[in-house]
Amino acid sequence: MSTEADRTGPAAVPDPPLIQGDVVPFRTALKAWFLISLQTFGGPAGQIAVMQRTLVDERRWIGQQRFLHALNYCMLLPGPEAQQLAIYVGWLLNGVRGGLAAGILFVIPGMVALLVLSIVYVAFGDTTIVTALFAGLAPAVVAIVAQAVHRVGKRALSHPLLLALAAAAFVALALFGIPFPIVIAAAAAAGWAIGRWKPNALKAGGHDSAKDGPAPLIADDALHHETPSGARAARIIVFGLILWAAPVLAVALSTGTGSVFTAQGLFFSGTAVVTFGGAYAVLAYVAQRAVEHYAWLSAGDMVKGLALAETTPGPLIMVVQFVAFLGAYHHPGDLNPWAAGVLGALLTTWVTFVPCFLFIFLGAPYIERLRNNQKLSAALTGITASVVGVIANLALYFAVNTLFTESRDIDAGPLHFAVPELASAQPVALAVTAVALVLVFALKWPVLRVLGVCAALGLTAGLAGLPVA
């Protein structure tokens, strides 16, 4: 006579838990996301650390491996990975409305703060005090970007092949002027090829494990109730593309296809789909086009804009809002320059962040079914390795434009790069950069403290009558 154990067999395991409905009360989630949004300083590493501490370690809303799986997918996407991670976890906790709430709250504080700072910069940027403050902030940015190269490289370049990929990306951008999207596409293909030829080279960097505590509300093996389907994907694509394109179409019809608003809407819509590796990775491309092609702002303005973005919460890619504000202010068309600046800033923020929601809501259900697929990370690893070279190129760009007042372009066959004129070196900028490097690398000070000290040094130099412009 058979027993229940005989019928089920010794290998029978219970079905994994199912995620459905609100994992936590929506009001509680809103409060948590708002508090997280006020702490998101210091770039994606700091923002991800805040979510790790709040969601994984303290509140135990999501398990460590589930959190990292979501992060890996977000790193594979173009756009700010920290904000996309917030959308993903918000979707896991409270469905679509949870993802919308998490993503929007993640952006709003930084958007408002940077818009106010952009207005202040345009209104008072030529005064001695403001010039002196930026004379301290801009060199600090050079050190901060150099730190980003070190941090990302330490995590991503775990094999000589990946180091070679990073070096190739740097050379392609810095010496040959190869367009950024081509570099990223080639890196993704190289990562895929390395994964097939030498998969051990693509081992992920280590992560801190979660602290001991109660079982998370979303277990690592839990299944999400929302299953992927063609009909669902079609609805999201159509609705998302309409939302994404509608404001650009509206400004094109109302201000003309040749207006600065149409140009910004199209340009930043394009950058939204090639911003692999976060803000640092794409800013060299944005700076090149915005400064040299569109003439929306100067290279010095670009460095100062990143310094402002570093002081506000939210994704660093928000610096494109500053770029758009200055570009629209300087080319307002028939509008008042201040109104044009605000319109350009808001339009650019919209087209930059709406795709993030589209990518997550479209792809998350599929990624949930691929949590154990090792091949999924191959292209990501190639892109992440190349991003080290991309950020190094950005550091070089900022250093040349911050530490020297003049440079000359070298065009020799396929080579195209800028060489600074050594006689134009700025002593104050060099000194502040040296201090910032010590604070960042030796003393390991947080970003905001470094910016504060460097701003004070610049202000002191300016008030003392030293040349700071």
Helix content: 55-70%
Order of helices and strands: HEHHHHHHHEHHHHHHHEEHH
Q: Treating each run of at least 4 consecutive H or I residues as one helix, how many helices?
A: 17
Amino-to-carboxy terminus distance: 92 Å
Structure description:
It is found in: Cell membrane. InterPro entries: Chr_Tranpt_l_chain, Chromate_transpt. Its main location: membrane. The protein is mainly alpha-helical. It has a domain of 328 residues. It has 17 helices and four strands. A two-stranded parallel ribbon has the order 1-2. A hairpin with a 2-residue loop joins strand 3 and strand 4. The longest helix has 44 residues. The chain starts with a helix and ends in a 6-residue tail after the last helix.
